[in-house]
Design a protein that fits this description.
This protein is an alpha/beta fold. It folds into two domains: about 1-35, no CATH class; about 50-115. The protein has two helices and six strands, in the order E-E-E-H-E-H-E-E. It has helices at about 65-80, 95, and strands at about 15-20, 35, 50-55, 85, 100-105, 110-115. Strands 3-4-6-5 form a four-stranded mixed β-sheet, with no helix packed on it. The radius of gyration is 14 Å and the shape is globular. The N and C termini lie far apart (about 30 Å).
Length: about 120
């Protein structure tokens, strides 16, 4: 739906939302770009880009084929981004962490991963 775009609305940050299902009206669609496609797919990210996933990666509703899907998502994240911020389930932390150089627990379920 693009609710996360509200965080960036008063900044100069370029936000691109990704959703696996078509949405009739994304939030702030007049200002930001949205891609309707199931991740993973190739993203040409810059070295300084940050991938942010809230309630998406590691959550069962997006693990279409269970651990296989999570593995594919993690491999794509490390291929596409050097910096990743996930709001994730803590029981998946060690699984995701093995795809990155290191990570920092920020607050509750927010984890910053980097390579």
């Amino acid at each position: 739906m693009g609710h996360q775009s509200e965080v960036f609305i008063d900044s100069d940050i370029e936000y691109i939302g990704i959703n696996d299902l078509p949405v009739k009206n994304y939030w702030n669609s007049d200002r930001y770009k949205y891609i309707t496609k199931q991740y993973p797919f190739k993203i040409e990210a810059k070295e300084t880009d940050l991938a942010v996933s809230l309630l998406c990666l590691t959550w069962n509703c997006y693990l279409y084929e269970g651990e296989k899907t999570l593995k594919e998502q993690c491999e794509a994240l490390t291929r596409d981004f050097k910096h990743v911020l996930l709001y994730m389930q803590k029981d998946k932390l060690l699984f995701v962490a093995k795809y990155f150089k290191s990570y920092e627990m920020l607050h509750d379920n927010f984890v910053y991963f980097y390579n």
